[in-house]
Design brief:
Radius of gyration: 17 Å
Family: Belongs to the short-chain dehydrogenases/reductases (SDR) family.
Largest sheet: 7 strands, parallel
Strand content: 5-15%
Pfam families: adh_short_C2
Order of helices and strands: EHEHEHEHEHEHHHEH
Organism: Granulicella arctica
CATH class: Alpha Beta
Protein name: Glucose 1-dehydrogenase
Number of helices: 9
CATH superfamily: NAD(P)-binding Rossmann-like Domain
Oligomer: single chain
Shape: globular
GO molecular function: glucose 1-dehydrogenase [NAD(P)+] activity
Length: 257
């Protein structure tokens, strides 16, 4: 397929639904071959693959729990073995646990930090090692959150993971720049995805949130995917070390009720 990303290969973690699915589809539309990662729901990943192939793109499925190093390393290896290269990594997979700080369990802490921060950290390491050895440039795009900067009561583990992701991104932009590898974060606000199903069903809560969003609507996965496509492309070749907020203005207007 022709496009800005023709000849490139992209790994998108958690690409069986929501933002990850939209990003995988968009990068494929731009010409990239896609590595679709999933942990628990192969049917969603299969749907992503089918959409990409219907549009004329190429995609492979790899099951990986990125909180496990062996899975992360295999995910990168499969990209190189099956598709011959890997140029773009989108660290999208993420989970959250709702609990007052004094009720947070070690298991919940380990689950959230294991996927959101440790997972992204070591998957990026595996991705970068292959590029370094091949002497090729690359793109790392982290799907962070407005909560890398904005408080979110009862989600302390999630905020810790995203705050950590912001600092790792800044550090890696400096460390990896000499290798020609850019590193940036996209920080979505309230996006219409499965993770927000309960919010969408709670009309008073939803309306209160919408009142805090200057653009007056939730974001769509495509709002994030279009920015990811730009950051993955040569057009963003001089862009690194930054967080790009996609939140309809929420962060600038937010206040706890």
């Amino acid at each position: 397929m022709a496009g800005r990303l023709a000849g490139k290969v992209a790994i998108v973690t958690g690409s069986g639904s929501g933002i990850g699915q939209a990003i995988a589809e968009r990068l494929a539309q731009e010409g990239a071959d896609a590595v679709i990662d999933y942990r628990d729901h192969p049917e969603g990943a299969e749907a992503t693959k089918a959409k990409i192939e219907t549009a004329g793109g190429k995609a492979i499925l790899v099951k990986a729990d990125i909180s496990k190093l062996a899975d992360s390393q295999n995910l990168v290896e499969q990209a190189w073995q099956q598709l011959g290269r890997c140029d773009i990594l989108v660290n999208n997979a993420g989970i959250e646990k709702n609990a007052a700080f004094w009720d947070v369990t070690e298991a919940d802490y380990d689950a959230v930090l294991g996927v959101n921060l440790k997972g992204a950290f070591f998957l990026t390491q595996a991705f970068v090692r292959k590029l370094r050895d091949a002497k090729q440039p690359g793109r790392v795009i982290n799907i962070s959150s407005v909560h890398e900067d904005m408080v979110f009561p009862n989600f302390s583990t999630y905020c810790a993971s995203k705050g950590g992701m912001r600092m790792v991104m800044r550090n890696l932009a400096v460390e990896l720049g000499p290798l020609g590898i850019t590193v940036n974060n996209i920080a979505p606000g309230a996006i219409n995805t499965p993770i927000n199903t309960s919010l969408l069903a709670d009309k008073p809560k939803l309306n209160a949130l919408l009142a805090n969003i200057p653009l007056g609507r939730l974001g769509e996965p495509g709002d994030v995917a279009s920015l990811a496509a730009f950051l993955a492309s040569d057009e963003a070749g001089y862009v690194t070390g930054s967080t790009y907020v996609v939140d309809g203005g929420l962060m600038r207007n937010y206040h706890e009720q």
